[in-house]
Design a protein that fits this description.
Elements lengths: L14 E7 L4 H7 L13 H17 L3 E11 L3 E4 L3 E7 L8 E7 L2 H13 L4 E4 L8 H10 L7 E7 L1 H5 L1 H22 L2 E6 L26 H16 L2 H15 L7 H8 L8 E8 L2 E9 H10 L2
Parallel strand pairs: 1-8, 2-7, 2-8, 3-6
Antiparallel strand pairs: 1-10, 4-5, 9-10
Helix pairs in contact: 3-6, 6-9, 7-8
Bound molecules: fe (ii) ion (FE2).
Length: 313
């Protein structure tokens, strides 16, 4: 496996193949019943799980060197951190839903790329740090998104933390930091020659119910939190489908405020910035609610966009 080595042709400039908006409700892993997760279910949330299955096939076909994920549930207060241990394993438990998610994780980390991201982030004027604790317990946001995109875990990963502190100051500063982090990520991928897939581990609208049915996967109890929240999700998704990222970026602060949207953690903006804010239409694989929150699985396939660009020259 080409991890942490110079197996890449150094003359090849790396590229981002595709980006996925990859929300991380632990319910999706719970519904899948993989051997790594202890709790057992009767299924549930199929529309989102089937959406992820389509992404898995796409990722298999793309054969990336690495999958990078930015997760809101690895929160860092000082700076942006990257996983920097060649192999991490252990038990990860969701603190809110321990009855749904107790997952034995095992992942290879592309530490060469992680180093490059930290260095480029510092060049962008950000605080950045490498996480070198071999006992580190990886957060469920990182694990759920990666499991749902690649349950075989046969592709190395890079995990990036969410530094939420800028949001205490202002939305603009926070977005600006995520744009810089995205740019740093893109430069690091290019310099290290990686063929990379990105994953933004974000739910859209995030107001949710605070009571769970006796059977968590009872789909007769699953529905949108409110009509207003649903309509705002649809507005955001329509802008993605149109490739209208200017308007999407313009409404994000209001979307975050009105729906408590999890994109506030910055993963989506990080990914869009790394991809250079592509104006191609996003492919929507599926939308569904989890305890009332709005989740969309969306894809930006940059390889298709590049082919189309060449053909129209
Ligand atoms: Fe979350």
């Amino acid at each position: 496996m080409p991890v942490n080595s110079s197996s890449q042709d150094s003359s090849f400039r790396g590229e981002i193949l595709a980006g996925f908006l990859a929300p991380h409700p632990p319910h999706l892993v719970y519904g899948e019943n993989p051997p790594q997760n202890k709790p057992r279910s009767q299924g549930g949330w199929e529309n989102l799980r089937w959406a992820y299955q389509q992404c898995r096939e796409k990722i298999k076909a793309l054969k990336p060197d690495v999958i990078l994920v930015h997760s809101p549930h690895w929160q860092t207060v000082v700076g942006h951190h990257v996983l920097h241990v060649p192999h991490l394993s252990g038990l990860s438990v969701d603190p809110i839903f321990p009855h749904l998610f107790q997952y034995e994780f095992s992942m290879d980390v592309d530490v060469e790329l992680a180093s490059a991201i930290a260095e480029e982030a510092i060049q962008e004027g950000l605080l950045a740090k490498k996480m070198t604790n071999p006992q580190f317990r990886v957060d469920y946001g990182t694990i759920v998104s990666l499991h749902m995109l690649n349950p075989d875990w046969d592709i190395p990963v890079v995990g990036i933390s969410a530094n939420n502190s800028p949001y205490y100051f202002s939305h603009d500063v926070a977005q600006d930091q995520m744009i810089k982090l995205g740019r740093a990520t893109q430069k690091a991928i290019e310099k290290t020659g990686r063929r990379a897939v990105l994953a933004a581990s974000n739910t859209l609208s995030h107001l949710h119910f605070d009571r769970e049915p006796d059977c968590p996967e009872d789909m007769s109890q699953e529905h949108v939190f409110s009509h207003a929240q649903y309509l705002y999700d649809m507005r955001v998704i329509e802008l993605m489908r149109q490739g209208n990222l200017d308007e999407l970026m313009a409404i994000l602060p209001d979307f975050m405020e009105k729906t408590f949207a999890e994109v506030k953690a910055g993963s989506l903006v990080w990914m869009l910035a790394a991809m250079g804010f592509p104006t191609m239409p996003a492919q929507i694989h599926g939308y569904g609610t989890v305890i009332g929150t709005g989740n969309v699985v969306a894809e930006w396939d940059l390889t298709t966009a590049r082919v189309a660009e060449v053909l129209t020259r």
